[in-house]
Amino acid sequence: MTSWTVRPEPYDSATAAALWRAYYTEVSDRWYVRETGRGTPPDELQRGVAAESGSDLAPPSGTLLVGWYGEVPGASAGLRLLGSGRAELKRVYVDGALRGSGGGTALMTAAEEAARDFGARELVLDTRLDLVEARALYTRHGFREIPAYASGPCSEIWYGKQL
To answer: What is the CATH number of the domain that holds 46?
Structure first.
């Protein structure tokens, strides 16, 4: 039986880039389909992917975790310190073909452990309302709605969990 392992990955590796593109494509396409009836235009997708380097997920104040299903990189989550004992979870993604196989749980467990290792006492995140699979994952792992702690075009609901 194949199992999940999660380990840190450089934010600028080819594996990280492929997972970032897959994540961004999915969330962007969901928005575009909802708003326009078709997927993200290729030039817009390329601009969106290139707009975030992921450097905020580099040590010493961040990390990128990659979940491997056997030898396949199929999940990722970024973590960055915000200060005051708070860490933020970013870019949580499990490949659609691998959802339901335990990757989300492996990723969330590793992210909480990494946050504790950073000295965080609270883990927070923001997301969009239409990302229902992600929202279900967060609540299954003890996250609860909290007041907004940041703003942005994709920030529609905020979650937090005491560690």
So the answer is: 3.40.630.30
